[in-house]
């Protein structure tokens, strides 16, 4: 590049020299003055160009310094890897993450810093290979080693880099320490798990203790009615009312127990459980729910329970707040994710108002459950035009346990 610049500059100088007037053996005063003037003009031009070059160099150095600061002291670790996975460059944050100084980090395989043994390294190698196959960004959550400290959970955001011939030659990787996010996610999972255990305990107590007592009481009252009224007289109305109240209480406790511990979900899966839930709502004639399910495999228990609870919460929101007459519920299995969509024709709300997501309405519980599954929630609502909720949960290869046929 420098040689080409020098050649270009020399060519321009020679062209300028040829354009200048030649002096004879006895130049006149005017010819000398003209030549001196041309030389002075040329000198001024060179000085101006030199000044412009100095200013351009200063701007370039300032820009380089800003880039260096941004690169070196960014909150993320930045790594440049070649096609073999060797570290070509790394910023100071990345070096600090791995606990190794830069000069000892360069030309080392990044896979050396992947924790978890050969299996995890294999996952990283497959991921790294995929980076060079497309121009899209690739994301992977994986544990990395940190010298003399505990391993940490990192998110890798990688994209391939191309040369002037559009050949992929390098990989640019951003590394984010998400250990705290993982810790918070685990704590949230523990809270939800404890909540489900408590629900199961209460449901068992209602079913095994309270419900039998009520049933026995009902039988005792009925026996008392029969004993006091052998001739079929009408003096048993108060006791009849007590029996009716007990029957209602027994039905309510059965319903509460079923909501707390949906045994139909455990025994028959998400499809049957949702069909049963929707049938009960439709029987009440307070809301018309249309259910459309397209899944051929049964997700694992964790995802099933989350989807069932989320659907319960969303339908409960519609019943309590939306003043809707119809709801469409869709559950669709895609190749990489499972999607739940709930659309109602109710009064809607301003989905840009964050108060709706913090002050009740069950959205906090929904967001929490979806977060534990690394899913996303998209809520679109307009006053007077109803509400649409789309929840997408990514699926790993081991998240299906049963073929539904």
Outline the secondary-structure elements.
Layout: H1 2-19, H2 29-72, E1 77-82, E2 87-90, H3 92-98, H4 102-105, H5 118-131, E3 138-146, E4 149-162, E5 168-177, H6 179-228, H7 237-260, H8 263-268, H9 270-284, E6 288-294, E7 297-299, H10 301-322, E8 326-333, E9 337-344, H11 355-358, H12 363-372, E10 376-381, E11 387-394, E12 400-403
Parallel strand pairs: 6-8
Antiparallel strand pairs: 1-2, 1-5, 3-4, 4-5, 7-12, 8-9, 9-11, 10-11
Helix pairs in contact: 6-7, 6-12, 9-10, 10-12
Verbal overview:
It is a single chain. The chain has 405 residues and is an alpha+beta fold. It folds into four domains: 2-69, no CATH class; 77-177, 2-Layer Sandwich (Beta-Lactamase), CATH 3.30.450.20; 189-261; 267-405, Heat Shock Protein 90, CATH 3.30.565. The chain is 54% helix and 21% strand. The chain is built from twelve helices and twelve strands. The strands form three sheets. A five-stranded antiparallel β-sheet has the order 2-1-5-4-3, with helices on both faces. The protein has a five-stranded mixed β-sheet with strand order 6-8-9-11-10, covered by helices on one side. Helix 6 (179-228) runs antiparallel to helix 7, helix 9 (270-284) packs parallel to helix 10 (301-322) and helix 10 packs antiparallel against helix 12 (363-372). The longest helix has 50 residues, at 179-228. Residues 397-405 have low confidence and may be disordered.
